[in-house]
């Protein structure tokens, strides 16, 4: 569990000494509860927790009623619940406290209990998978990172080696069939699709292999390649990602080693390849020079 006790310098708005905070608890089904302590505030029927989808146009929001959890002379703790059965569009949702007609006030993060999110296994009888992870923004505010996917290819293990990378994971919501393959697609432009073999394992498990040399030979299409899993020859591809844990943004936390790519065109000596997670926790591979990697 983590706790925020100080607002970083430079954040506009209410000072930390008067700003409300919320303790978040996740359940294994994907639901979230928000507990908001309000010292000195009596029970309110017009209190709500507001989630606003960042950069959405028109503005998309979800309003959750806040109900008393406990009370006493010191004030009231109000709880809002976001059930796992309520879809939440993919993106970053900023959390606010609303009291009656007052202007919404940005919430600060309190203590997060996200243990139930680690190694979460989705039910196979569902039609969509919702993942929500609360986190502190760079300004020290409370937000929720949301994913809405199905089928979903979850990364388990990544083994970077000289010349290629092996990815082990689990596919939920679709069966692996004949013609299943791993696909690498250039991130910023239309271009060739580089493929690798997929070996099905027990249950929904799979092992896939991507040769770096195949990417190096197609470098004119770009240096960043998204990884997709196509479950069968006629199936729609599924983005490969790691979202079934408690880390909202792996981009700056999880780092894999760069390995020699080989197979490049003349003048590509020293070309390396490195797997990495995007800001959405999707798995990609970047080609880079040895000097840049250093």
TrEMBL record:
Residues 1-22 are annotated as: Disordered. It comes from the Bacteria. This is Transferase. The lineage of its organism: Bacteria, Bacillati, Actinomycetota, Actinomycetes, Kitasatosporales.
């Amino acid at each position: 569990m983590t706790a925020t006790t100080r607002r970083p310098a430079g954040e506009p708005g209410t000072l930390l000494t008067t700003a409300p905070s919320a303790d978040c608890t996740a359940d294994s089904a994907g639901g979230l509860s928000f507990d908001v302590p309000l010292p000195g505030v009596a029970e309110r029927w017009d209190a709500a927790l507001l989630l606003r989808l960042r950069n959405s146009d028109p503005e998309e929001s979800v309003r959750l009623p806040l109900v008393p959890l406990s009370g006493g002379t010191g004030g009231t703790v109000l709880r809002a619940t976001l059930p796992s059965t309520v879809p939440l569009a993919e993106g970053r949702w900023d959390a606010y406290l609303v009291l009656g007609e007052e202007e919404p006030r940005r919430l600060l993060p309190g203590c997060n209990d996200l243990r139930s999110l680690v190694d979460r296994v989705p039910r196979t009888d569902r039609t969509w998978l919702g993942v929500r992870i609360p986190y502190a923004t760079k300004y020290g505010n409370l937000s929720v990172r949301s994913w809405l996917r199905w089928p979903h290819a979850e990364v388990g293990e990544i083994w970077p080696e000289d010349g290629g990378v092996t990815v082990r994971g689990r596919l939920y919501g679709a069966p692996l069939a004949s013609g299943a393959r791993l696909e690498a697609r250039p991130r910023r432009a239309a271009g060739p699709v580089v493929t690798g073999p997929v070996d099905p394992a027990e249950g929904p498990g799979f092992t896939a292999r991507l040769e770096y040399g195949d990417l190096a030979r197609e470098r004119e299409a770009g240096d960043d390649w998204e990884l997709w899993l196509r479950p069968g020859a006629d199936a729609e591809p599924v983005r490969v990602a790691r979202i079934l844990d408690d880390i909202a943004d792996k981009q700056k936390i999880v780092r894999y080693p760069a390995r020699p790519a080989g197979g490049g065109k003349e003048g590509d000596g020293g070309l390396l390849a490195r797997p990495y997670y995007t800001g959405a926790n999707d798995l990609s591979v970047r080609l880079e020079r040895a000097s840049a990697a250093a």
